[in-house]
């Protein structure tokens, strides 16, 4: 019995069509059917081969691609260097850097510092801006240090802190730099090297200016770790070096820096006493600027008030003598000004300065002479600066009074600004 062939238009044909389609899928499978590719769809991970990214500059699982340099940035020295290193096969590579660091560490532990130096350099070169570079930079500086090449070591320590400000080696770097600075200062005090004389044989000290490089190393200790345990030590050592070299203004600056920035330092009392001496020795006389003399007067009083129990009898006597010397110098400054005005017959201004000496510095030798001078000129009128007094009285009768007021204002301004020479232009 043969079944009738159904037609599409017949009801039986419409029932057979889904059955035929299912049979075709079962026999042919689904290999010919694919998902549509939409414009926003991403390629499957299996379609992208590992290591096939030709834009990658680094072999590392932690690589974060940097933005492409374009425009004029392509001609920067660092970018040109980076492209050249990539072209010759020396681009960043973490496995190579790690291997070089491990080999260098092995040599370092065996005491073969010179053999370890090129391997540390290679590690730094092949994987920059990483903890590997930080460790290699520290170890490279240590190799320079243990081979007595202190200038290179000090530069490397400073470069490490500049690139990694919060490096874990900060405390040890400060210790190394402080020791190097001490060594250079001791060498300079012993041999008194010329600043411009080159050093071509001894690799343990700089080529030029051993003392200057030592002071710079002290600066690095303070600047790199301003709250570290050696910060105040470096400031005090630098101030003492300037003091022994008779550079009073520089010594005064660093003693003042220690007093203001490190009030809890163990060197605080010494910074006050030596700072007082530095200020007094920096003063050049009554013909020069006298602001530092006033600062010394304030500092002397501060020492006696702040350290009443810490001053030894010798130190207390020395401070009292310094105060007396400061008072004598201040009185001499006023005396010179008073004499200048008295010789010019500007007695009003002269009386002011004589009175200041008698009032503010009564224990000085000039105080008695100032009182005598004051009594001699207390009733004398000031000389007139008007060449035609009779004509001036007729044309401008208030001119003489104005001149007297100008002279008094000039004297007051002179006291206020502590003019160094005692000779100032008339205030108009």
Structure notes:
- The protein is built from 17 helices and no strands.
- The chain is mostly helical.
- Helix 6 (150-163) runs antiparallel to helix 7 (170-191).
- The model is unreliable at 1-33, 38-65 and 418-428 (pLDDT under 50).
Q: How much of the sequence is in beta strands? A: under 5%
Low-confidence stretches: 1-33, 38-65, 418-428
Structural class: mainly alpha
Query: Care to count the β-strands?
Result: 0
Question: Which secondary structure elements does this structure contain, and how are they paired or packed?
Answer:
Elements (H helix, E strand, L loop, with lengths): L10 H18 L48 H11 L6 H16 L3 H14 L4 H16 L3 H14 L6 H22 L18 H15 L6 H14 L3 H14 L6 H15 L8 H16 L6 H31 L3 H14 L4 H13 L11 H7 L3 H19 L11
Helix pairs in contact: 3-4, 3-5, 4-5, 5-6, 6-7, 7-8, 7-9, 8-9, 9-10, 10-11, 11-12, 11-13, 12-13, 13-14, 13-15, 14-15, 14-17
Task: Write a concise keyword list for the protein shown above.
single chain, 428 residues, mainly alpha, 17 helices, 63% helix, disordered N terminus, disordered C terminus
């Amino acid at each position: 019995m043969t079944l009738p062939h159904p037609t599409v238009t017949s009801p039986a044909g419409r029932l057979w069509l889904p059955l035929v389609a299912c049979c075709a899928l079962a026999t042919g499978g689904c290999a010919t059917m694919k998902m549509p590719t939409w414009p926003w769809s991403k390629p499957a991970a299996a379609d992208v081969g590992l290591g096939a990214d030709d834009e990658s500059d680094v072999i590392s699982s932690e690589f974060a691609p940097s933005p492409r340099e374009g425009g004029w940035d392509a001609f920067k020295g660092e970018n040109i260097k980076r492209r050249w290193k990539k072209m010759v096969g020396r681009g960043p590579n973490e496995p190579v850097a790690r291997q070089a660091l491990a080999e260098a560490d092995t040599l370092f532990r065996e005491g073969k510092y010179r053999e370890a130096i090129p391997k540390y350099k290679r590690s730094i070169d092949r994987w920059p801006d990483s903890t590997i570079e930080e460790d290699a930079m520290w170890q490279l500086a240590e190799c320079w240090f243990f081979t007595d090449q202190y200038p290179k070591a000090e530069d490397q320590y400073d470069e490490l802190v500049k690139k990694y400000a919060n490096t874990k080696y900060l405390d040890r770097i400060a210790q190394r730099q402080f020791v190097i600075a001490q060594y250079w200062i001791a060498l300079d005090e012993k041999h008194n090297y010329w600043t411009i004389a080159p050093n071509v044989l001894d690799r343990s000290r700089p080529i030029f200016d051993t003392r200057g490089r030592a002071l710079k190393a002290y600066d690095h200790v303070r600047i790199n770790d301003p709250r570290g345990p050696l910060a105040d030590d470096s400031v005090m050592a630098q101030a003492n070096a300037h003091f022994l070299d008779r550079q009073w203004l520089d010594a005064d600056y660093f003693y003042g820096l220690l007093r203001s920035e490190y009030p809890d330092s163990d060197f605080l009392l010494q910074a006050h006493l030596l700072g007082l001496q530095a200020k007094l020795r920096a003063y050049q006389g009554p013909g020069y600027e006298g602001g530092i003399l006033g600062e010394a007067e304030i500092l002397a009083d501060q020492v006696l008030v702040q350290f009443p129990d810490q001053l030894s009898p010798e130190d207390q006597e020395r401070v009292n003598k310094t105060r007396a010397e400061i008072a004598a110098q201040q009185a001499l400054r006023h005396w010179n000004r008073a004499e200048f005005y008295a010789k010019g017959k500007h007695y009003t201004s002269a009386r002011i300065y004589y009175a200041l000496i008698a009032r503010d510095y009564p224990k000085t030798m000039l105080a008695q002479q100032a009182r005598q001078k004051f009594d001699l000129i207390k009733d004398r009128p000031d000389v007139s600066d008007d060449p035609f007094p009779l004509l001036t009285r007729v044309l401008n009768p208030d001119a003489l009074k104005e001149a007297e007021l100008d002279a008094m204002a000039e004297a007051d301004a002179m006291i206020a600004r502590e003019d160094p020479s005692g000779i100032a232009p008339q205030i108009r």
